[in-house]
From TrEMBL:
The protein, known as: Short-chain dehydrogenase
PANTHER family noted in UniProt: DEHYDROGENASE/REDUCTASE SDR FAMILY MEMBER 7B, DEHYDROGENASE_REDUCTASE SDR FAMILY MEMBER 7B
GO molecular function: oxidoreductase activity
Any matching Pfam family: adh_short
Origin: domain of life: Bacteria
InterPro entries: NAD(P)-bd_dom_sf, Sc_DH/Rdtase_CS, SDR_fam
């Protein structure tokens, strides 16, 4: 049975992807900071769960120890930063450091910790990116900079670990709590559900195309969701 480790798995896209992979027969190791929601999800999906903060090196070590063989690492956990989203002129540097710890350093730490397990199974790494990584949206400078950094780390990882598949995916706007925090619940409610993206990501993992960056549109084409 194939095994996946998913961060930020208690809600939003992480939870939707966990459900989609479970339906596809995957064994799951789930992590998030919110214990109650995480353990509820794990119970429903018959999955293993380890609650904690991905910026904590001890937590990263526990996750790697719990997955000595791994087919898929999903770096989904993200921090949005202070809201309302401030312009760069008003972005607290301490907040930017926290964003970098969560959105860049923690994913790399998890890659480093799980590489032996991933190499053993010639597995895959999936990083959840954003169009804020490549577009200039007012207020999104801090978050976008971290996602741009994650994109580049993924790109280099793909060049260095050629036996692995490495994908960094911009899923577009989704009706999640993070989007609601950023733009308000009314606008977020009009965005697509994470379930459709999760279904496409599951097909991506199954088809296993070459490493690269995928937008929602490219993901749909690559996985056959659009003729």
């Amino acid at each position: 049975m194939k095994k996946a480790l998913i961060t930020g798995a208690s809600r939003g896209l992480g939870l939707a992807l966990a459900k989609a992979l479970a339906d596809d027969g995957w064994s799951l190791l789930l992590t998030a900071r919110g214990e109650e929601d995480l353990f509820s999800a794990a119970f429903d999906l018959n999955a293993e769960a380890i609650a904690g903060d991905v910026t904590d090196p001890a937590h990263v070590a526990r996750l790697a120890e719990a997955a000595p063989e791994l087919d898929l690492l999903v770096n989904n956990a993200s921090d949005l930063g202070p809201v309302p989203l401030p312009p760069l002129a008003g972005l607290p540097l301490a907040a930017l450091r926290r964003l970098l710890e969560t959105n860049v350093i923690a994913p790399l730490a998890l890659v480093q910790a799980t590489l032996p397990a991933l190499r053993k199974r010639k597995g895959a790494v999936l990083g959840i990116s954003s169009d804020a990584a490549v577009e200039a949206y007012e207020g999104w400078g801090g978050y976008g900079a971290t996602k741009a950094a994650l994109d580049q780390l993924s790109h280099v990882l793909a060049a260095e670990e050629r036996d692995l598949a490495v994908w960094w995916v911009d899923p577009g706007e989704m009706n999640t709590r993070m989007l609601a925090d950023a733009v308000g619940p009314g606008e977020a409610a009009s965005a697509p559900s994470p379930d459709a993206v999760a279904s496409a990501l599951t097909r991506l993992v199954t088809i296993r195309p070459q490493s690269g960056r995928f937008t929602r549109e490219a993901l749909a084409i690559a996985t056959g969701a659009r003729e």
